[in-house]
Protein 1
Amino acid sequence: MWQFFHKLGSPKWFYGIASRFMPWLLGSSLLLMVAGMVWGLAFAPPDYLQGNSYRIIFIHVPTAFLAQSAYVMMAVAGIVTLVWRMKLADVFVKAVAPVGAVLTFLALFTGAVWGKPTWGTWWIWDARLTSMLILLFLYCGVIALGNAIADEKSSARAVAVLVLVGVVNIPIIKYSVEWWNTLHQPATFKLTEKPSMPPEMWVPLLVMVLALYLFFGWIACLRMQNEILYRERRSSWVKAIMGTGNARASAKVTD
Amino acid sequence: MLKLPRLTPRQESQPVLPALLGVLRRDLLANFRRRQELFNPLIFFVMVVALFPLGVSPEVEFLRQSGAGILWVAALLSTLLSLDHLFRHDFDEGVLEQMLLQPQPLYLMVLVKVFSHWLVTGLPLVLMTPVLGVMLHLDGNSIGYLCLTLLVGTPVLSFIGAIGAALTLGLRSAGILLSLLIIPLYIPVLIFGTGTVTAVAAGLPVGSYIALLGALLVVAITCAPFATAAALRISVSNS
C-alpha cells in the first residue's frame, strides 16, 4: 500500500501507468455513453408531466454530478499537496480545474435549456442555480491563481489553500434544494433511498453518470500527462519520448 | 565530548498578549499616519452609492426597495479595494518576514491584524451607513437593521478577504485577481445581509438571518486566520 503511495509521487511512473489505463477508460466510457444515450433518448418512457423535454436529464445530471465531485477530488488533492508536498497532486489540480469549469458550465447550460420549457425561463436566481454559478466562479479563481504565480511550488501550495477554502460551497450546493424552498427539484439519486423515478428512467441515467466518470478519468489522465511532459521537459526520459534527446537518453528509458 | 548549545526556545519567556497588543498598536498607528489611505475606501463607498440614484433611478420607491442591497454591494466593493493594503506595506518593508519569525503563533497575529484592519475600514463604513440610508429614503427600522447586519457582516468580509490578500501578495496584477478569488466567497454574506433587511421591510421575523450571519462571523474568525497564515507563509517564501 505505502509503496504504491510513494510511487505515486513519481511523475514518470504515473506517465507510464496512465498510458496503459487510458485506452480502457476511453473505450469503456464511449461504449457506456453510446448505450446510455440511445437508451435514454430513444427507449426510456416519456415523463407524465414534462413529456419528452425531460430527456436532457441524461446530460444535465451527470455533468452537474461530476462538476461537484471534480471539485471534491481537487480538494483532496489539495490536502495531499499541503501535507505530503506530492507533485502529482498539484498536477491533478491544475489539469482538472479547467475540466471542472467546463462541466459546471455544461450543467448550467443544459439546466437553462431544460428550464425554458419547464419553468418558462432560462434562468432564475434560485439557490441551486446560484450556488452552481459560484462553483463556476471558484473554478475560474483557481485557474487564474494557478496561472498568476510563476514559481511551481508556491503556485501548487497557494492553489491548494484556495481550493480548500472554496470547498465550503460544496455542501451549500448539495443541500440548497433541501434547505431552501426552491424551484429546482430535489436530488435524483440518494445513497440511502430508492430513487423516486422508475428504473426504466434511472438505470440509463446511472449508465450515463458512470460513462461520464470514466470519460473524466480519461481526460484527467490525458491532461495530467501533458502537464507532466511540460514540467519535466528538461529530464532525459521526456526528451527520449519526444524524440528531442540524444540516443543515450532513449537507451536509458528502454532498459 | 562536544557540548552542544541548547536549541529549544524557552516557552515561558514568550508572552503572547503583549506581542498582540503591540501588533494592534503598531497597525493602528501606521494607519493613522497614512490618513489618506484611510479615507479612500470611505469616499469610494459614498461614490458607488451615489451612482445608483443617478444611474438607475432617483425615484423614492426604487431606492427604498433596493437601498439595502446598494449599500451592501458598495460596502463589499469598498472592503475589497481596501484589502490590498492589509499586508502590502508590511510585505514591502519586510515587517511581515519578521512577524513570521516571531515565536508567537501566527494565527493570533493574523487575527489581530485583520481586526485592526476592520477597525479602520469596516467600522467607518458601518458608521457612515445611517447617513446614506437616509439619502436612499430607507425608514428608521430598516436603517437600524442594516447597520446591525453590516456590523456583523463587514468583519466576515475582512476575514475572508484576508485569505485572498495573503494569497495574491507580491503578484503583479494582484488587485483584479484578488477580486476574482474573493467575490465568490462573499456571496453568502451578501445574501444573508440583504435578506435581513428585506425581511424587515416585509414584516417577517429576522432572527434566523441574523443568527446565520453571526454563525458566519464565528466560522470566519476561527477558520480564516489559519488559511491566511498558511497563505502568508507561501507568499513570503515565494518572494
Protein 2
Amino acid sequence: MYDYSEFDAAFVAERNRQFRQQVERRVSGALTEDEFKPLRLMNGLYLQLHAYMLRVAIPSGTLDSAKMRQLAYIAERWDKGYGHFTTRQNIQFNWPKLPDVPDILDALAEVGMHAIQTSGNTIRNVTADHFAGAAQDEIADPRPVAELIRQWSTDHPEFQFLPRKFKIAVTGSPNDRAVIKAHDIGLQIVTRGTEQGYRVIVGGGLGRTPMIGKVLSDFVTQEDLLPYLESVVSVWNQIGRRDNKYKSRIKITVHEHGIDDIRARVAERFKLVRPAFSGVDLALFDEIKAAFAPPAFRKAGTESFDKAYSADPVFRAWADTNLAAHRAPGYAIVQISLKAHGATPGDATAEQMRVMADLAQFYGHDELRISHEQNVILPHVHVSDLPAMHAILKRHGLATANIGLISDIIACPGMDYCALATARSIPIAQEIATRFDELKLEHEIGELKIKISGCINACGHHHVGQIGILGLDRAGVENYQITLGGDHTQDAALGQRTGPGFSADEIVPAIERIIETYLDYRQDRQEPFLQTYRRIGIEPFKSALYEKARAHAAE
Amino acid sequence: MPRAFTPKVVTANALIEGDVVYLTVDDRWTRDLAQAEIITDEAHAQLRQLMAEAQPDQVVGVYLADVTAGTNGPEPTHFREDFRRSGPSNYRHGKQAELSDV
C-alpha cells in the first residue's frame, strides 16, 4: 500500500486548511453559493436531496485496517453510523453537516486519505481490479500504475477545467474485473515479448449515450505511458465539446472524430509532450512498486479448511460462492458480501467496518479492497483461517453467500439520496433480493448480474448488467426499463432494451418472468443466464415480459 | 395559452445541515411541509422566491415546488417532493425520524 510522502501529507494538509477557511467564509456569508459550489465539489462535497454528501476517494479500491477503522470512526462521529461503498470504489457519507466537513477531511488526512477530485470536471479517482495482487490470471499488479496516474493527475495544472469529468480504470489481467471498456480511458497491462506495457482503450462510458471503449494503442511502454495519457487528455481538453454537457465526454469526441483521427492527433501531441518527461516518473514508479510489494505468504496446512468444508454445509455454501482463486498456494481471495438479502447494496455499518478491519489485520496481511460491485474483498487469506473468519463474519451479518448471484446487485443511491435521480434504485434491489431469497432459487439460477441505475447517468452500470434496470420518471410515476445481455467484462457489451418499462409494483414480477424464461430455456445448469441469452436472443424474454402479461391480464 | 398557475411552496436546503426546508407565511424556515405557506398567486410566488433567495446565509437552492392543499396543509404532487418531505426509504433517517422547526 502506498503511504503518503512528506510532500503528499503537506499537500493534503494545505488543501484542507484552505477548505476549512472556504467553509468558514461560506457560513459567514463572505462567499455566495455560486462561489462556494465549485470549491466544495473540488473537495468531494455534494448537496443531495436530504443532506450534504461527502465522497471520499479510495485509490485503486485499496485500504488497510487503519484506514477502514478511520472510516468507521467518521461514520459514527459525524454521520449516521454507516457508509456507502460505490461503483467507483469510493465511500460516500450521506449525512455530514457543512461545518463538520473540514474536521472529517482532517481525520481522513490522518490516515492518508482525502476527497480531492472525487467530483468536478477533473480526472477522478483511478480504479483498479479488486483482485489486484492476488488474482491467478494477473500479469502484474495494476495498483502501482494506478497510483502513478493518481499522482500525475492530482492537481495537474492543465486538467483542472476539463470539458467534463474523466475516469480511468486499470487491470493487470486479461479477464477484466475493472470494467475498463466503460471508462474514458481503460488500461490493460499486456506483454510484448518480454516487455510489459499497456493496451490503451479510450472512449468508453455509460450514461445517456453508452459506448464501449475502442483500442487507441495496442502497446504503450512504461516510459511513454504518462506522456501518452497526457496527450490523450490534452487532445480531448482542446477539442472536446463544451457547448453541451451531454456531448462533452471523450466518448462523444471519439465518436464524432473517429478513432483514427484521435489517434493521429494524440501522436502529434505526443511529440510535443514526450520530451518534458525526463524519467522522473520512472524512478517514482519504482518507488511506488516497492510500496505495493506482495506480502510474505505463509505456508500452512489446509486441514482445518477441509474439515469445516466437509462438516459444515453453511461454510461450504459460503466458500463455494464467495471465494476466488488466489495465485499463492493455500491462499484464497475472500469476497465479503455487502448485499445481505433486503439490505442496501454497498452499505456497511461502523461496526461492520471495524470487524472487516480486524479480520484483515489478523488474517489478511492487513489488506482490504472495495470492489466496483460494492463488496469488500480480503485479497490474501490462508484457507486454514477461513473457518474462524467465517464464524466472525456470520456474527456481524457479513457472511451472505451470494457473490455473483441474483441478489448481488449493483444499485446506485437513486432517489433515496441523489439529487439527479429520476427514480429510486435501492428499494428495487432490496425487493428483488428478498423475493429470490424467499423463492430459494438463487443458487439454482447461478451466475447473474443485475445492475440498477436511478437515472440515465448510469452510476449503477445498468447498460452492462446481464439484466439492467433503469429507473425513470414517466409522467410523475417511477418507471423501470429493462435491458438484457449487457456484459461488463473483457467481452463488454451493452444490453438491449426489452420494450416499455414497468411500474415499481410490476418490476419484480417482470424480473421473475425473465428468470422463469431462462430456467425454461437453458440447456442445463452449466449454461449461465448470459450464455442462454446469447443463444436464444431477446424474443423469448420479450414474449414472457409482454405477451404473457397481457394474456394474464385478459384472463 | 399560458398554463394556469398551480399551488406552490418555496423550498430549499438548509445551508448548515443540508436538509429540506420550506418557507412559512410568517417568513420562517420550517422542516415540516405541513407548516409551509401555500402560494396560489404567481406574482406572489415570484416575490416569495426572491425573498428566499436573498437569504444565502440560511438556505441553498431555492425553488418553487408544486403542492396541493390537503387537510393538513400542503401535500406534494410529485414523488420526488414526497421523498424530500420524509427522507430515504431504506432507513428511517431524515425528516421521518427527526421533525423539528428551525
